[in-house]
Amino acid sequence: MSTQQRSDPADIAVAFTRVLRGAGLSVPTSCTHTFAEALCAVGFDQRDRVYWAGRATLARRPEDTAVYDRAFAVFFDQRGADVSLDEEELLSISIAVDVDDDDDGDDGADSGDASDDPVIELRFSATEVLRHKDFAQYSSDELVRSQELMTQLRLVGSPRASLRLGPSPRQSSRPDIRKTMQATIRSGGEPLERHFRRPTTRLRRLVLLLDVSGSMEPYARALLRFVHAAVAGRQKVEAFALGTRLTRMTRELTSRDPDVALAAAAERVSDWSGGTRLGDGLRRFNDEWGVRGLARNSIVVVLSDGWDRGDPDELAAQMERLHRVTHRLVWVNPLKVTPGYAPLARGMAAALPHVDHFVEGHSVAAMEELTRVISEP
């Protein structure tokens, strides 16, 4: 291994994790973070330390060891002293893997070069790389390409009971008199068929509050595309911008043309990349929208890094107030993925006790995890 670290440990950890996933291993994002922290601790000076740092954090099952060993040999050993890599190299990495041969009829005859291991070509498409790339590192072209990935996300909230009744396929305590009488008339007055009704379900409303302050600028432009995909892709989604003021932008984002929608939202939000007062913004949301009905039994998602210039006590009070009326309160923080991150910002520390889920928000893959959290019962 190299005596000089030529790449950031976090970049190496993410790249090696992609290789393992392409080889079929299931590696959660949390394991990638742990591996990055381990690399920071052990460095790249000694091969055994790097090997066991990855083995302990990434290979979670005994059967993963063989694939891990092959991947490690290609990714680290064959690279020699240079462990740096660029995106183009990530697009095509070959890993030789062992294949079990259960053919008992092998009598030792020559079957070719036994030293040649089967090779699996792991080809990472640009789309796959883009899914895991940090929003802050996106180019303008990548932002446009990410829009298609955002629109593929299925933002479906958990169902809740509705006051409306619908047909029931089986006997229940609520007979449908009207349909039963209609069926009786059709059968000549004989009650041959009975109909029943039962309460139906409806999807919960989803409310998205996007922090558009200066500290969120590297992420807000990508997250706005996620918000647009949510508003344009399903009903009962409300979108607000949080900055020095609260701005409702649901109507501007309803257009399915992203260019039209994003331009309208940018014109609507006058305090883009300015300061932020999360407590004041949430107080206005609670007073004018949330507590009055928009947030009641809804899923509310706050997309913010937690940096706030306002009073943290005000933010804590408004978060507690909002949490009392929502079905689920989710906070999405793009900085959570950072190795060693701790919610030390005043705003984040004040809000966290009142949050049901605290999730990452730095990439398309993180947004996919957010959709899973939103869809939970």
Can I get a quick summary?
The protein has helices spanning 9-22, 29-42, 47-58, 65-77, 87-90, 126-132, 140-151, 177-186, 217-233, 258-268, 278-294, 312-325, 346-351, 364-375, and strands at residues 92-96, 119-123, 159-168, 196-203, 206-211, 237-242, 246-248, 299-303, 328-333, 357-360.
Structure write-up:
The chain has about 375 residues and is of the alpha/beta class. It is about 45% helix and about 15% strand. It has 14 helices and ten strands. Strands 7-6-5-8-9-10 form a six-stranded mixed β-sheet. Strands 1-2 form a two-stranded antiparallel ribbon. Helix 2 packs antiparallel against helix 3 (about 45-60), helix 7 packs parallel to helix 9 and helix 11 (about 280-295) runs parallel beside helix 12 (about 310-325). Mean pLDDT is about 80; it is low at about 1-5 and about 80-120.
Number of domains: 3
Structural class based on helices, strands and sheet pairing: alpha/beta
Rounded mean pLDDT score: 81
Helices and strands, in N-to-C order? HHHHHEEHHEHEEHEEHHEHEHEH
Per CATH, what is the topology of the largest domain? Rossmann fold
Give me the Rg, rounded: 27 Å
The CATH superfamily label of the largest domain reads von Willebrand factor, type A domain
